[in-house]
Amino acid sequence: MTVPFLDLEAHHRAHRDVFHQVLESVMTSSGFIGGRALEAFEDEWAAFCGTAAAVGVANGTDAIELVLEGLGIGPGDEVIIPANTFVATAEAVVRVGAAPVFCDVDPATLLVSAETVEAALGPRVAAVIVVHLFGQAADMTALGSLAERHGLHLIEDAAQAHGAVWDGRRVGSFGRAATFSFYPGKNLGALGDGGAVTTDDLALAGRIRELANHGRAAQSHFGHVVVGRNSRLDALQAGFLSIKLRGLDTANAARRSNHEIYRDRLPPTARQVEVDQRSVAVHHLEVIRSDRRDDLQRALSDAGIGTGIHYPVPCHLMAPYADYRRTPLPECESAATEILSLPMYPELAASDIDRVADAVDAAVGQLAPSS
Ligand SMILES: *Cc1c(COP(=O)(O)O)cnc(C)c1O
């Protein structure tokens, strides 16, 4: 592969020795579950996001499920979510017994907006989950006032947007609660699965802690006060995450600089998804649109360039979610046929971006215009 889609080995190279120290220290203490490493990371993550609390959980999907459960959302409730998200957003809603109402997105940013959410409103809607897709912050000003006007819980799925900023504030600090994934390929990734909830609501944080730890009351081992489950962030992953968090802003800045190099080098026929001027994006993915997407992807693959599609099928068109399909969602549906994710990671060299841009240029030049 000339330019891989993602290079986690390069991303972790500088941290290897410190990762070994974390392993030694956790082994020595035998504090594998809970304890100081977890508490330290939770405090650091809350401080980074600008919230009163962060709760480490097993993964980003559980984080969404636990927030919904913690807010008492379940059977009889509806939750508005964009159709162009990773399936986990929809999965969590169905798992708590609520029904997803899929909404469309803004054609320029491919993010949910107050307008697209408004079009999906109904009497049973209890919450909206805003997805900051591709590392780009949605318009939390307009979405916040819409949620307030209609008495809806506003939840952020920030699994792709660690550190992204809307109007001077980091995502994860806007809604009732926000959810993060630390899946290895995310902007802040563990060496395995991990996730977190951030919130200013300490009572909600406490309920989520209980639910995620077998329904245990705080500080109690056998005081099971609710029917809970096991969804914890373990100490080893928390220790790795604390180390990687120190480099997150720098890594995100490198992604932004890569995005700008792409913008300068890509041919005009390969349109980048727009970033709202009021936001600072963290470019989890570098997404372009082309009406010859499949041919372009094939040509790039032949040139040794790794690409992805995020996501090829919008959730409302997936078989398991057919019962929740209501209306066509034209922006999500057309985007799904046009989007292509190019290589994007902090360690990507400018010379690699040149190679990708040249290959895109050569490919679109050779592709006959679509009819
Ligand atoms: C990755 C992701 C999730 C799920 O996170 P996991 O840790 O893999 O469970 C949820 N929502 C979005 C938008 C994601 O990208």
Write the layout of secondary structure elements.
Elements: H1 8-13, H2 16-29, H3 36-49, E1 53-57, H4 60-70, E2 78-82, H5 88-95, E3 99-103, H6 114-118, E4 125-131, H7 140-150, E5 153-157, E6 165-166, E7 169-170, E8 177-181, E9 195-199, H8 202-212, H9 235-245, H10 248-265, E10 271-272, E11 279-280, E12 286-289, H11 293-302, H12 330-338, E13 339-342, H13 350-366
Parallel strand pairs: 2-3, 2-4, 4-5, 5-8
Antiparallel strand pairs: 1-9, 6-7, 6-11, 8-9, 10-12, 12-13
Helix pairs in contact: 2-9, 3-9, 4-5, 4-8, 10-13, 11-13
Bound molecules: pyridoxal-5'-phosphate.
Largest beta sheet, briefly? 7 strands, mixed
- What small molecules does this complex bind? pyridoxal-5'-phosphate
Q: Which descriptor suits the 3D outline?
A: globular
Structural class: alpha/beta
- Taking pLDDT < 50 over at least 5 consecutive residues as the criterion, the unreliable ranges are none
**Distance from first to last alpha carbon:** 32 Å
Order of helices and strands: HHHEHEHEHEHEEEEEHHHEEEHHEH
Task: Name the average pLDDT.
Answer: 96
| Rg estimate, integer Å | 21 Å
Task: Give me the side-by-side strand order of the main sheet.
Answer: 1-9-8-5-4-2-3
Query: How many strand units?
Result: 13
Percent of residues in helices comes to 25-40%
Our estimate of the beta-strand percent is: 5-15%
Number of helices: 13
